[in-house]
Give the backbone structure.
Amino acid sequence: MAQVLPPEIDVEIRARPYTESESSLARCDAAVFVLGANEPEKQLAALPHADLWRALYRAAKRVDDKRVLTARLPNKRHTLVSVAIAPADSTAFSRLSLAARITREILQPGVGLLRVYARGMDEVIARQWQEAIASAVLAAAAPMPQRKSKPEPECSLRRLEISGPGSFPVARLLAIAQGNHLARWLATLPPNELDCTAYRRALKALAKREGWQYRFYDEAELRRLGAGAFLAVTRANAHRGAGIVRLTFRPAQPKHEAKLALVGKGICFDTGGINLKPHKSMYRMHGDMQGSAVAAGTLLTLSRCDVPFRIDCWLALTENEIGPGAYRPQEVVRACNGVTIQVVHSDAEGRMVLADTLALASREKPTFLLDFATLTGTCVAALTERYSGAFTNRPELHDSLQAAGRDSGERVWCFPMDEDFDQDLESPIADVLQCALEGSGDHILAARFLGRFVQAGVPWVHIDLAASERKGGLAHVPTDMTGFGVRYATHLLAGGELIKKLRKRS
């Protein structure tokens, strides 16, 4: 039986001052030095084996590639060392991207102990660089599903030592890495292994392990709740087992009554339904469940950070299949909040399952509602696969949403949500069109559609995961499935300040 839940990332992190000497470096397998951009040759001269680094730097200058220098030291262990010249002005994204390059060079087979130094910069910036490198190392060290007859060797790293004064957020760093790993792992599993039933069982096992509450709303219960939009999509799902999983984290010591609701789109495979996708568009549609994977990964991270507020995580699990029972254009269905929907395109199934899931989640009046979904191609067209789109019914949150993207390195861009966009969703026979016939601005129309299922007064943010998949990875993540959103949501929410502000306003 295939392993559906990922193993823990087996890397110990220690953070304390370590000596920068030839003898100290001879006791580890690999090391990274990050140097400030000011007078790099002078800083290189202060490193152990200074002559080696100055020679490499001068040679690199001649080819204009002096950012990362890598060599094996002339000691018995042949310690592998990378020296990186940090740019004077860096963003979180650029730090993570450079960290990924360093990691590719330094995490070679046989490296079991890696030490990271930062010098020539103030303590805050040094910690930022060390956190970026540690994040890239953990992302690369996380094992991913392999089904090859001869599996590729897994990363041999077992200990990461961070050198420097002051505290280092080891627990938070590991929590983010594990949450991101969960999202990437689930999104990578082939669809014959991660169908709705297997996914549900894995989430139940995860809940038991982490001490969360678990509840499953099966199709019969959803029928009693009137979730006609969700059930329209499930009609052709041959595997059955579709439904909504609810995971609940309750903090050991809650500081207030605030509640966070996470919602994720979990389409385990998307054929497009009656409006069948062409083969190239269908090829990687096992990944159409990434919204649910990111929501679950975010729950894992925030609960391990022991945030002081309750979290309900709602995951909409089904497949969008083709068959005699498949829902069709022009059908009219009723969601559980009473809103009637005229179906336009069966491949807009994500907004159908999210409609009922958002309605159920918002019924409980959460302090903040955040959903993740691989929802529209137009968002990718607008932003490429480097950013994701953010939409909210609280425009005053725009600055906070984009700041969290800049600070985390998982960048988002806020799109407009003006009411006049609803003109394109007017139906002659129902309350709302599922989507417009033309694709222009579909990411905005999808968000306007979803907003109809969020109860008035509930602050809501929708993340259209344009950056969920990118060939070669993104920032510090080396895999095509990026797990984008876990790191972002942690920066946005883990401190609790946003939740507190929203609670005061409510």
Observations:
- The first strand starts at residue 12 and ends at 15.
- The CA atoms of residues 115 and 161 lie 5 Å apart.
- The chain has a mean pLDDT of 94.
